[in-house]
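Data card: per-record layout.
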Amino acid sequence: MCEKTRKSAIEQKIGTLIIMRKYDQAIKFVASIDTRDLQYPFQKEVVLKNLLGLKAETFGDSINRHTYYSEGILYLENYIKSKKPDSVEFFAAYHDLFFLKEKILDTITFNNNLDSLIKAIPSKKRYFGSLKLH
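The structure for this 134-residue chain is written out next.
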């Protein structure tokens, strides 16, 4: 199987397990793969934190839910600091970052985070503006 097909198959399997709410199985699967098996190196850690958050949410465990999502956010914020702003990976990381932030922030705080980025990186205003919640 070629690398592109393998990565696509792995992402589809993870997505399918999430849709089926088989979080334990998804966690074991993601833990077993290499970071090179996903499109970007940061995704393994982020997907694991998301899965752990989803699992906690299923059990009504809001403390661990918040903890796992916050850990994923911190990981991505640190990862983004090490990347060039124009790389495709940078935008993928920001997409995943705000995917997680949306799970724990209220709409005003979420949008304020985006406004801060627009001020810091005005050339990416259109991209960050498209992520805002209405």
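Known properties of this structure: The chain is about 75% helix and 0% strand. The chain has a mean pLDDT of 94.

See the next section for split statistics.
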